[in-house]
Design goal:
GMP Synthetase, Chain A, domain 3; four-stranded parallel sheet; 24% strand; Rossmann fold; alpha/beta; globular; nine-stranded mixed sheet
């Protein structure tokens, strides 16, 4: 691992940190566009200047290396001004999930011990509500007043504080989605970010001509991690404030987007948007996708619609994003290795993977399903103020327990089944919902689907499907359910097949596109002993 990182550092010394990347491109491409949102564009030198102002203002407010600075707003240029300002100073950004209830926001800000909170106008009411719940925050800065706050704190043209993080210095703190309990603060270090920046430069076609679309929320590793990766070549990043399929298509055609990262739910939305066939997509080189399962049908139709390369990435917040990738050359639906479309790809050169029995911890052979463990320089430092949880997640040898179930092929391709906690045990047989969901989504009458385990007197639990109808599907719900179940039984072993289908208008998802299985299971398991984490 160390050798590959050292080599990458030698090849790309300007990628030793996000701060070093900003300094380098501001010096070598000062007048080229760096960030665009709607009608506002910042060049690399302008962004560097704004970051220096932010760093100086924070320092004047008593912020120094290691201090937490919270940010609450939708995606925007201001986030990067704050993020890079903190990088120059050595402070730690804490991007707060703006979709949370105010009390949940307060829990994160208080847990982080943030001293400054910068917030957008859409969240003024929420901030007023939580102000008394976050005693660590001494300074509240509305983004609408950012310029005046900077002017009041900064004299003249501020110098760069010059901070450069060491390997274990925390640069940003991201909070887990909380789908299995209270969110935990994941400490992402300078070493973690150095590794992903070098990985982007080495593995993907990121260069000065890259026009990257940042479509994911920036409190998510898929948002900030992708945005930073897209900047490694000194190119242009266009920010999407909210995910709207028509706006996605407009940005691609207007700005000539070359690369983006999206979750499968966005691809599904785009496929259902009539404007897709009318949009000029010729600039697109690669669509990166991941963060939640994708059906083969959605993937193949997306590849046909975009007519460009596709690359799947797999990772977690705790691994600073992607640790494996199914590269474009492995996407061949009609070729002899079409089965690879179900794979999350192979690990990056600096990443080690193991598949172990989740009970005994013993390594399993190729083809056997177990828990995915990884070890690399991308693994988080740990969970903020949670040593017990950190020790449970990362063992003494540095192996991180992902909580995902999967298997490795003889060639080293990783195939994911599901979250370990989502596995259904029916009559002693293990059923992985993602496999069943993929079969359901192959039916043209199904627009979206989730599979959960529900109580069964004989089998302990049985498989239930929660389905969103395709608006074009004919027949009643009962008729469609009968047809879908019959189709699934031709694709899967009988014990894996749903015993019932419920229809809903929409499935609950978190900001990264993952279906909230806990919410779906809760009504069926109320008063029972199953852990519905």
């Amino acid at each position: 691992m160390t050798d590959s990182i050292t080599t990458a550092t030698d090849l790309h010394p300007h990628l030793s940190s996000p701060a070093a990347m900003l300094r380098h491109w501001a010096a070598t491409r000062p007048d080229e566009p760096m960030l665009t949102l709607n009608s506002r564009t910042l060049t690399w030198s302008e962004a560097y200047g704004r970051a220096r102002q932010v760093a100086s203002a924070l320092a004047a407010d008593g912020i120094g290396p290691g201090d937490r600075v919270a940010f609450l707003d939708r995606s925007g240029i201001e986030f990067f001004e704050i993020f890079f300002g903190c990088c120059l100073l050595g402070a730690v950004t804490v991007a707060v999930n703006w979709r949370l209830a105010p009390a949940e926001m307060a829990t994160i800000i208080d847990d982080a011990g943030a001293a400054v909170l910068l917030h957008g106008s859409d969240y003024d009411d929420a901030v007023a509500e939580i102000a008394a719940l976050v005693p660590s925050v001494r300074t509240f800065v509305p983004l609408a007043d950012l310029d005046s706050w900077l002017a009041a704190q900064v004299d003249g043209t501020p110098a760069d504080p010059g901070f450069e993080p060491q390997t274990d210095d925390v640069v940003t703190q991201l909070y887990t989605s909380g789908t299995t309990g209270l969110p935990k603060g994941v400490m992402i270090t300078g070493g973690n970010l150095t590794t992903i920046l070098h990985g982007a430069a080495e593995l993907f076609r990121i260069g000065p001509d890259t026009v990257s679309m940042a479509a994911m929320p920036l409190f998510h590793i898929g948002g900030v991690g992708w945005a930073l990766s897209g900047m490694t070549g000194g190119g242009h990043t266009v920010i999407l404030r909210d995910v709207d399929p028509i706006e996605v298509l407009r940005i691609i055609s207007t700005h000539g987007v070359t690369e983006t990262f999206v979750v499968p739910a966005v691809l599904m939305m785009l496929l259902a948007t009539p404007q897709l066939t009318e949009t000029d997509l010729s600039s697109m080189r690669t669509v990166f996708y991941g963060a939640s399962p994708i059906s083969e049908d959605v993937l193949v139709r997306s590849m046909e619609a975009f007519g460009c390369d596709f690359a799947q990435v797999y990772g977690l917040t705790e691994t600073t994003g992607a640790i494996t990738s199914l590269m474009p050359e492995d996407h061949d639906p009609s070729g002899p290795r079409a089965n690879l479309l179900r794979s999350a790809g192979r690990p990056y050169p600096h990443v080690e993977l193991r598949i172990v029995d989740s009970t005994s911890g013993e390594d399993l052979p190729a083809g056997a399903v177990g828990e995915v463990l990884c070890r690399s320089a991308q693994n988080m430092l740990g969970y903020w103020n949670k040593p017990a949880e950190t020790a449970a997640a990362i063992d003494a040898e540095g192996w991180f327990k992902t909580g995902d179930a999967g298997w490795l092929s003889e060639e080293g391709f990783l195939f994911l089944h599901d979250r370990i906690k989502d596995m259904i045990v029916s009559g002693g047989e293990n059923v992985y919902p993602a496999e069943v969901e993929n079969a359901l989504l192959s039916h043209p009458g199904v627009a979206d689907a989730a599979v959960i385990g529900v109580p069964h007197e004989k089998w302990g639990e049985t498989v239930k499907a929660i389905v969103v109808r395709n608006p074009a599907a004919e027949g009643s719900d009962d008729e469609l359910a009968t047809e879908v179940l019959a189709d699934v039984r031709t694709r899967l072993a009988r014990y894996k097949c749903p015993t019932s289908i419920d229809f809903v208008d929409v499935l609950p998802r978190n900001p990264s596109g993952k279906i909230l299985k806990r919410e779906l299971r809760a009504p069926y398991w109320e008063g029972r002993e199953r852990n519905i984490g």
